[in-house]
Amino acid sequence: MSEAYCPVGPGLGPEENFLSLDDILMSQEKLPGRAESTLPRLAFALGQGAGAGDAVPEGSKLEIPLWLAKGLHDSKRRIISVELPKIYKEAWRTVFSADANVVDLHKMGPYYYGFGSQLLNFDNPENPEIAQTILQASTFISRFRRIMDSSQNAYNEDTSVLVARLDELERALFRAGQKGLNDFQCWEKGQASQITASNLVQNYGKRKFTDMDG
After folding, report:
1. Which of 17, 43, 142, 170 could form a disulfide with 100 if both were Cys (CB 3.0 to 4.6 A apart)?
2. Cβ–Cβ under 8 Å, residues 200 and 9
3. 3-state helix, strand, coil in the chain (%, to 5)
4. d(CA 89, CA 95)
5. What is the rounded CA–CA span in Å between residue 104 and residue 166?
6. Which among 119, 111, 101, 83 has a CA at the least distance from the CA of 10?
7. How far is CA 207 from CA 23, 38, 132, 165, 193, in A?
8. Cβ-Cβ contacts under 8 Å for 38 (sequence gap 6 or more)
9. What DSSP line would sit under 64-110, residue for residue?
């Protein structure tokens, strides 16, 4: 008998996990950019030509899927240049610093954290500020507290409004919080034999020990 599908978590770093459906979908998100040289036979793939053999002229503005942008990016050979999406620019970083909880991350980019981590692969002078914003107190930690509070105070309720403004990573954390609360309620009522750690925690522990072994 075949085993049930077990979801694979995202890479949560500069490299995707190619077994993760979330990372596969995230890699389709597009980046604004510019062709710094002629790109042979790529016009059709980038929606700029009718035939499969058409080239993208040098200087053309592009909307490039992340996976292709990473493949074409080369710091030594100027093939393409990549611009920051507006959600990662200084104006929005200022908004996050003021109050990260007011931002509808799902509307601005459903893979905000994962996509932002991938941007660190490109040579951008604002990379340190991007990393500071997405990974430290100005965004993730500030929103994480509210997400977990909400997940623990919405037992057997419609949570669609609570998760509507969250990116996909935050939604996974919310679901983990809800599952933990539900498991505890079942255990407290004698309906479960034991409480087990969530898959997110287990996967994080495995990665941590692997890094230590290396």
Report:
1. 142
2. yes
3. 50, 5, 45
4. 10
5. 7
6. 111
7. 17, 41, 22, 29, 28
8. 55, 56, 57, 58
9. EEHHHHHHH--SSS-SEEEPPPGGGSHHHHHHHHHHGGGS-HHHH-T
Give all domains of the chain, ordered by start, each with its CATH number.
1-83 (1.20.58.2050), 85-192 (1.20.58.2050)
Under a CB-based contact definition with an 8 Å cutoff, are residues 112 and 87 in contact? yes
Q: Would you give per-residue pLDDT tens digits along the chain (214 residues)?
A: 455 556 666 655 566 667 778 888 889 999 999 999 888 888 887 877 666 678 888 999 999 999 999 888 877 788 899 999 999 999 988 888 888 888 898 998 899 988 988 998 888 899 999 888 887 656 888 888 888 888 888 776 778 888 899 998 899 889 888 888 888 878 877 776 555 665 655 665 555 445 545 5
d(CA 41, CA 51): 8
- Tokens in use for 75? 């710091």
* Cβ proximity of 121 and 70 under 8 Å: yes
From the centroid of its chain, how far is CA 7? 16
Q: Write phi, then psi, for 163 (nearest 5 degrees).
A: -95, -5
